[in-house]
Amino acid sequence: MKNAIFGFISCVLAMLVIGIVMLFSTGAFATDAHGDPTYFIKRQSLWLGIGLVICLIVSFIDYQLWQRYWKVVFGAAILLLALCYVFPPINGSHRWLRFGPFSFQPSEIGKIAVIAFIAQWFSRHSKESGEFLKGFVYPIAVSCIILALIAFEEDLGATALIGAAMVVTMFLAGSNIIYLGISAMGGIAGILTIAWLMPDRVHRLLAFRDLDAYKQGSGLQQYQGLIAFGSGGVEGLGLGNGRQKMEFLPFAHTDFIFPMIGEELGLTFTLAIVFCYLVLVICGITIAMNASDRFGALFGSGLIFLIALQAAINIGVTTALLPNKGIPLPFISYGGSNMLFCLLAVGIILNIYRQGVTKPPKPALTKLSSTRVLTRI
Question: Which of 96, 3, 15, 103 is nearest to 343 (CA)?
Answer without folding.
Answer: 15
